[in-house]
User: Fold Dirigent protein from Helianthus annuus.
Amino acid sequence: MKSPISFAIFIIFLFFLVSSAHPGMQRQYYPCKNLVFYFHDVIYNGQNADNATSAIVGAPQWGNLTILADKFHFGNIAVFDDPITLDNNFHSSPVGRAQGMYFYDTKNTFTAWLGFSFVFNSAQHKGTINFIGADPIMVKSRDISVVGGTGDFFMHRGIATIMTDSFEGDVYFRLRVDIKFYECW
Assistant:
């Protein structure tokens, strides 16, 4: 029979061997789900009430509630209820709604802060996906956080890469939203 001391030394040696295996390697994360949607924002400008999907609800002293303020729209706050589509055609059937707000928060460049949800109630998806983050609008591709969800997206978290797909002055823009979930329940 082997002595208890040699057995203890063997266990300690095994512990250090296992705990030091690959000390500098980082875990590689892969998305558990990937979705792509487009959302279309038509801001109310005083003349397009029938088509508008968003409106300015707060403006700086030098601005008003029908036209975005000068100086990079600084101080404007908008709420929206935009259609979400699977392609970039505004007239495609919506698969959900993008509901939330954004405000322009920088005086020397176009930057916004976003907080919104994708709301789905269709045969394909049910539930919500919640987003939050800064949007440096002049950057071609930018990331915002996916902070959770409900229904089919319960407790999902990840990153959404957004890109301005199209815009028409200060009235219309379309965002391509590439969602990568890294936590799926």
Summary: The two ends are 50 Å apart (CA to CA). Residues 133 and 144 are 5 Å apart (CA to CA). The chain is about 10% helix and 50% strand.
